[in-house]
Design goal:
By secondary structure, the protein is α/β, with parallel strands linked by helices. The protein has two domains: 12-155, 3-Layer(aba) Sandwich (Rossmann fold), CATH 3.40.50; 160-346, Up-down Bundle (Dehydroquinate synthase-like, alpha domain), CATH 1.20.1090. The chain has 13 helices and eight strands. The strands form two sheets. The protein has a six-stranded parallel beta sheet with strand order 1-8-5-4-2-3, sandwiched between helices. α5 runs parallel beside α7 and α9 runs antiparallel to α11. It is globular. Bound molecules: nicotinamide-adenine-dinucleotide (NAD). Nicotinamide-adenine-dinucleotide (NAD) binds next to α4, β6, α5 and α9. Residues 39, 41-42, 66-67, 92-96, 98, 116-117, 119-121, 124, 126, 128, 154-155, 157-158, 162, 166, 229, 252-253 line the site of nicotinamide-adenine-dinucleotide (NAD).
């Protein structure tokens, strides 16, 4: 066994009621002017957060949207600068945390993240900015949130359908962490337990969205998934989802949900140890089939056709995704990726 392990400087405050610790976390950073970030839909939650901060809140910016368009980042940066904000409190999913990262990238403003989905951005130093339909991403320690407050209470309002696919998105991070080029034993433990926690809780979350015990277990899994994503490299699955999202504007979490079983089937023979761990965590005989069945159990769509992709796009996406592939446990071939996308397009349950 050989590995290099350098943990990121994470600070995580987890538990029901953890949001009460927010003023303490802002004070700990020595900050006095907090700008609260959110999407337009989560304005009411952001107002509650701002109230908790009292006079340390200098305003709310509710313009976060998916994939951080450059013009949105510029407007938010100008707003933060005009208020003299010395901390951003990002309340929401990956879109809102991504906006905080865009501000941090420009000014070094620290972020306190309060995640309300299972996407995992809060645990990573990865930023993304979209200009003229093209998303650029990068890795910069300055954008890693300085504190992450996971309060499962805030996930109770996440609609059941979105909860299911958001959780599958988190599982995708764990899956690819287990066969990453720079996998290490600590992150692999976290990734495996992340799959287990999410697989056990998501069907219950979807059936009983107000069940705080299930919500807590799902968010625990999402934390492990975010940590996995932040710590090691991702492979063919993430490359395909970035290409599908960026080129065809397919919905983020739903696309991850559809593609994951097929990406795992593609890598099946190249990563047998990871496959066994994924299957065990899912309580399934086969990793790819177990993921497909879990997606169906949470009521998710299982074909790219149902997400709005058209059949002629298969070749275009295969060309783009193989032109500059991420490292993957097995060779990424045009023919192989076309077949993978064809199966995902049709929503075929992977063969054992
Ligand atoms: P999102 O942040 O776009 O949220 C989806 C919708 O759900 C929004 O309308 C939001 O307001 C709403 N919502 C969120 N939480 C809610 C709650 N608890 N109750 C009610 N409504 C709620 O979706 P996402 O999947 O979290 O994030 C996707 C974006 O994040 C993509 O752009 C993706 O590329 C990015 N991302 C980045 C990283 C990274 O490491 N940089 C990691 C994961 C995702």
């Amino acid at each position: 066994m050989e590995f290099v392990f350098e943990p990121l400087p994470w600070r995580v405050i987890f538990g029901v009621g953890a949001l009460e610790k927010l003023p303490e976390e802002v004070a700990r950073l020595g900050a006095a002017k907090a700008l609260v970030l959110c999407t337009p839909e989560q304005r009411a939650t952001a107002e509650d957060v701002a109230r908790r901060l009292g006079e340390k809140s200098v305003g709310i910016y509710d313009g976060a949207v998916m994939h951080v368009p450059l013009e949105v980042a510029r407007a938010a940066r100008a707003h933060a600068a005009s208020l003299g904000a010395d901390v951003c409190v990002a309340v929401g999913g990956g879109s809102t945390i991504g906006l905080g990262k865009a501000i941090a990238l420009e000014f070094g403003t620290p972020i306190v993240a309060v995640p309300t989905t299972y996407a995992g951005s809060e645990m990573t130093p990865i930023w993304g900015l979209t200009e003229a339909g093209v998303k650029r991403t990068g890795n910069d320690r300055r954008v890693l949130p300085r504190a992450v407050i996971y309060d499962p209470t805030l996930t109770l309002s996440l609609p059941p359908a979105l909860s299911g696919v958001s959780g599958m998105n988190a599982i995708a991070h764990c899956v690819e962490a287990l066969y990453a080029q720079n996998a290490n034993p600590v992150i692999s433990l976290m990734a495996e337990d992340g799959i287990r926690a999410l697989a056990q809780s998501l069907p219950r979350v979807v059936r009983e969205p107000q069940n705080l015990t299930a919500r807590t277990r799902a968010q625990y899994g999402a934390w492990l998934a975010g940590a996995s994503l932040g710590a090691v490299g991702m492979a063919i699955h993430h490359k395909l989802c970035h290409t599908l999202g960026g080129t065809l504007n397919l919905p983020h979490a739903e696309t991850h949900t559809v593609v994951l079983p097929h990406a795992v089937a593609y890598n099946r023979h190249a990563a047998p140890v990871a496959m066994a761990r994924i299957a065990a965590a899912l309580s399934a005989h086969d990793a790819a089939q177990g993921l497909f069945d879990l997606a169906a159990a949470v009521g998710a769509k299982t074909s790219l056709r149902d997400l709005g992709m058209r059949e002629p796009d298969i070749d275009r996406i295969a060309d783009l995704a193989t032109a500059n592939p991420y490292w993957n446990p097995c060779l990424v071939t045009l023919e192989g990726v076309r077949a993978l996308l064809g199966d995902a397009f049709e929503g075929i349950r992977p063969a054992a």
